[in-house]
Amino acid sequence: MKALITGASGFIGAHLAEALIGRGYQVTGLVRRTSRTDRLTPLQVELAFGDVGDSDSLRKAIVGADAVFHLAGLVKALAYEDLLRVNEQGTENVARACAEASTPPVLVVVSSLAAAGPAPNGRPRQETDPLVQVSNYGRSKRAGEVAAGQWAGHVPLSIVRPPVVFGEGDPAMLAMVRPIKWLGMHVVPGFTERRASMIHAADLAAGLVAVAERGGRVAAANGNTDASAARGYYFLAADEHPTFAEWGKLIATALGRERLRVLRTPEPLIWGMAAANESWSRIRRRPHIFNIDKVREATAGSWTCTADRARQELGFSVAAPLAERFSQMTRWYESQGWI
Ligand SMILES: NC(=O)c1ccc[n+]([C@@H]2O[C@H](COP(=O)([O-])OP(=O)(O)OC[C@H]3O[C@@H](n4cnc5c(N)ncnc54)[C@H](OP(=O)(O)O)[C@@H]3O)[C@@H](O)[C@H]2O)c1
């Protein structure tokens, strides 16, 4: 079996490449000339150079693939248009290129819980719940789902919406891990108790492979709103939903820190800091993950979802509890000198 991964050079891409190779797939990674591919080199991933904005490069890379995993995406940008260009238009280009293949491959689009929205009424979100995006990132990921859905009549399509993903190679979690390691301090936005679903990248990768091999598919012409059944859509997440404070404690324990100071920060201060950081990003013309859009998400409620559908349809489960997975991640950070 041959698989193509877009966004192979990214954090999740390397974990997925490893999982696919472990199952005997021949893996090609779509990367850009500027991409860092050092995590792919030891994995024997063939490289195809291209860009999700360049349909020709996509058509060439897809030839012969049995499955395409579309991970390429922007999680931060200076403008909403930039998010749409990659997360919506790039996803449509990938879906169209799959549809144009002589034998269209299975297409698994990696979207985000942000495309669906926070937990409704204090319970974990299910695939069938009405969608309520609260951020530009979420809206752009939903736009990508809709754009891919237009090709569902031509391509066997599934859409996975992961919550927070963490693991070895994740640069995003460092902002939380470093203050815990160095200062024994964990900053929590606001005074409301909020929970988050999460998944280790290796568990997500295993789930993505299961979705490609035996998952349900999005119904033709139903990419837009299939809220009643949302067939072919999956949340993949661990069963634990820690509060933001517990999340810090999990990391502290993984680092062997017995005491942790949880610093609750008033929301107006967080908004102000994000606005200042975003202005600084604009001056430097380099987007930063701590921005107003992320604060919109962080203050929108609990971000929990249930993987019940994936469990029932695919036999999905995570291989290890969060505590063990966070230890694995922090050991890797230490081994690489990141902390
Ligand atoms: N990390 C999470 O917590 C999380 C949660 C939910 C959903 N997701 C989704 O999962 C996917 C992967 O996330 P990640 O954390 O692995 O992100 P990441 O580390 O930032 O990787 C993004 C990947 O997309 C590639 N890319 C960006 N623009 C591209 C373009 N125009 N053409 C081709 N490739 C392009 C990047 O290539 P370069 O290396 O060249 O920059 C990189 O390989 C994204 O779609 C994201 O929205 C992530």
List keywords for this structure.
339 residues; alpha/beta; Rossmann fold; 2 domains; two-stranded parallel sheet; 14% strand; globular; binds NADP nicotinamide-adenine-dinucleotide phosphate
What does the model show?
With 339 residues, the chain is an alpha/beta fold. The protein has 2 domains: 2-168 and 198-239 and 303-319, 3-Layer(aba) Sandwich (Rossmann fold), CATH 3.40.50.720; 174-194 and 241-298, no CATH class. The chain has 11 helices and 11 strands. It has helices at residues 11-22, 55-62, 80-100, 136-149, 174-183, 201-214, 244-254, 267-284, 292-298, 308-314, 322-335, and strands at residues 2-6, 26-31, 46-49, 67-70, 106-110, 157-160, 164-166, 185-189, 198-200, 233-234, 261-265. The chain has a 7-stranded parallel beta sheet with strand order 3-2-1-4-5-6-10, sandwiched between helices. Strands 7-9 form a two-stranded parallel ribbon. It has a two-stranded parallel sheet with strand order 8-11. Helix 3 (80-100) links the parallel strand 4 and strand 5. Helix 1 (11-22) crosses helix 6 (201-214) and helix 7 (244-254) crosses helix 11 (322-335). The chain is globular. The two termini are 38 Å apart. The model has no long low-confidence stretch (mean pLDDT 95). NADP nicotinamide-adenine-dinucleotide phosphate is lined by residues 6-7, 9-13, 32, 34-35, 51-53, 71-75, 86, 90, 110, 112, 162, 164-165.
